[in-house]
Here is the input.
Amino acid sequence: MARAVFLTSVTIAILGASLFAAAGSLRWPMAWLFLLTFLAFSAFALVVLDPALVRERGRLLADADRTDAALSSAFALLLYPGIMVVCGLDRRFGWSPSPPALVAPAALGVFVLGYSFSLRAMRANPFFATAVRIQKERGHVVVDRGPYRCVRHPGYAGVIAAHLALPFALGSLWGLVPAVAGSLLLAARAVHEERVLERDLAGYPKYMRDVPWRLVPGVW
Here is the structure.
């Protein structure tokens, strides 16, 4: 738990530094509200998630799948500091037109809904690790309850929805560039993860037939 708290604190610090350093100012109310929202979700997750999952997600795995590690690093850089830096620079130099007043709070609401859906997936799936691997020591089985009845990667779906909305919350159309790029990489990671699970996790091929959609029901 101590490691998880430390990693959460470091993440918040990096996001804040990326936002305000790029913007050149601390006077950015929506950025502060976003950080507080992200901090609240992170703290709530540490409280409600299975402690075994929290420990698993904090592990450094030397034998992690290389393709998965590369995709994870790339999408994380784009969706987290990448969006913050671009949105901060946009605020400093005024690249995007000013949005209508209700756009930012509505977009932050979508961000909250996206992370809520992702957190629900993490609570339903005790094997929601940061690295793709078969957790034999934890009795890894297929999870088909909760949001996993609708799509095969609800955690990813929630994160993608949240981060596509985030640039609008921060008032930056240019922030969509890293948001879209990171979302595409996260979708690619979902495909790679499925190949591993289909090959190595008993029951996963049947689950893929039962739940045909990866991220969006009726679409993909």
About this structure: The radius of gyration is 18 Å. Residues 66-93 form the longest helix (28 residues). The mean pLDDT is 92.
